[in-house]
Specification:
The structure is a homodimer of 302-residue chains. Chain A is of the alpha/beta class. Chain A has 11 helices and 12 strands. At the A-B interface, α8 of A face α8 of B.
Chain lengths: 302, 302
């Protein structure tokens, strides 16, 4: 029987957990609790501990627990530092607290994007090399780097915030191509566009509408994704030049537009990079989708 | 008696070597040979080996040799990959070759900027933390990151090429603020400048002239360094966001203008970075100057 881990994905809306089969990635005993009601008790970490206790009682064979959290954590992976969605936990030594309550178990804490990136290595559809960059496109632009099959922590422990790199127009990358900014840009470009397009002109362009239009070859939709790809590509070049990593996974909700963003991304990479990088360059979509957070948390136990 | 190492700084013009006292950083038995004549023999690595043999014979107590080279090396630090100034050595497994000739000795190979960065830790004037970014301003903009007192290799082994990050004006950073580009910019700004300045208008502005003018408060010279600082600052923000390292050393020939560049650098960092980074931010000049390469090479032996 394959080893099983308890994976916990702490989000601003829900805390999800489940028993993950280390070989198949199958999730059983899935449980979700709304973050807000645990916060309201004033004892978020205790409530989390209670839920863990239930899981461990039902699954006595599980000895390792991985936890992904949406924010900054201490370099030694013991303490919550800045969890914007649950700020009252900032400074909480969550791992020592849980270890005290569950002394027979091992706990592993990681930032959720880092965990999701690592999850792609162990549970993704494709075999990955031991070094890759993971970038998530969504409301924000998040990221992680895996080096030697380990989460790259950088100096202070919280490496890889690509969304906050200076980009064009005096803005950071995610203020140029985050979901909301993308839609603002789309509606603005729609207003100025003179050609044929099926994109609505009343300011109601949605990301799904944009992707659908692009898949039908809509010229304006493709132009919009070209802007996104250009800015993303330039940002990726900086990451590649700093990290010397040329396998790149793109995840997050906006990665649905992957194939429409990629022509511009590839154009920028070819423009800026030398053969040393280009010969191993490989950019692809992340594969874990909805379960990325939970599987990523479990992958911390490997 | 303190341990001694042989430090070797392979440059495009000269190969310098010397016995380095691990405590004091004093260099004895200094020897320099022009790179070109060794290249002309067609046996560069053999010639280097001969020079090493002489040094080791004269200093039998030395058991470790550190070598810095100006280019890309293999991730396992055994082989020269792309040494632009000595391209005929590309692909040479220099460490196995030397180890075969000197089986009783240990050899350590590193990129020269990486070595110089590490040298600052062991031989610099100031106590450094275990994590810092090193940026050299010169004809190019080079760099290195030290994480946990070790050279950060990234994924492929050749991390930290900040000069090749996309910057403003559709150019990479070093094509904006490398020495020659800085002088082009200075002469261009001189042509457009209407105020009082002591900078010559005949296209003959030099970096020393620029620094001297800035030190006298020349408005145009300060404006020129403001441009450099703005672009450098934005580049540093990207490095900080990716690496989560907030101690930054500035070295290289142009670092003579450090104090005139810094106001703009600091302005950009304050603009882009959050308190998490700002509370530990520390930017200072590198201290090793001329001996950085040789001492850096020796520091690989620690």
């Amino acid at each position: 029987m394959a080893t099983e881990y308890l994976g916990i994905d702490v989000g601003g809306t829900n805390v999800k957990m489940g028993i993950v089969n280390a070989e198949s990635g199958n999730i059983t005993n899935f449980y979700s609790h709304d973050t807000g009601s645990w916060r309201a008790t004033g004892h978020f970490v205790d409530n989390l501990g209670d839920a863990i206790a239930v899981q461990l009682k039902e699954n006595p064979e599980v000895k390792k627990i991985g936890i992904g959290v949406p924010g900054l954590i201490s370099r030694d992976r013991s303490t919550l530092m800045e969890i914007t969605a649950i700020p009252e936990t900032d400074g909480t030594p969550i791992i020592p607290l849980l270890k005290k309550r569950f002394p027979e178990h091992d706990f592993f804490l990681e930032n959720d994007a880092n965990a999701a990136a690592l999850g792609e290595y162990y549970f993704g559809e494709e075999k990955l090399p031991e070094d890759y960059i993971f970038v998530t496109l969504g409301t924000g632009v998040g990221g992680a780097a895996i080096i030697d099959k380990l989460v790259f922590k950088g100096g202070g422990g919280n490496a890889m915030e690509p969304g906050h790199m200076p980009s064009a127009n005096g803005k950071v990358l995610e203020r140029n191509i985050g979901k909301n900014e993308l839609l603002d840009l789309a509606n603005k470009m729609r207003g100025e566009f003179k050609g044929e397009t099926r994109l609505p002109s009343d300011g109601s362009i949605s990301t799904t509408g944009l992707v659908a239009a692009a898949s039908d070859g809509d010229v304006l939709a493709l132009q919009i994704f070209d802007v996104v790809g250009t800015l993303l590509g330039d940002g990726l070049v900086s990451m590649i030049r700093i990290l010397d990593i040329t396998t790149i996974l793109i995840g997050g909700g906006l990665s649905a537009s992957f194939e429409y963003i990629m022509p511009a991304v590839n154009r920028q990479l070819k423009y800026w990079l030398t053969p040393y990088y280009m010969k191993t360059l490989d950019i692809k979509r992340a594969t874990l989708a909805n379960d990325a957070g939970l599987l990523g948390a479990a992958s911390l136990c490997f």
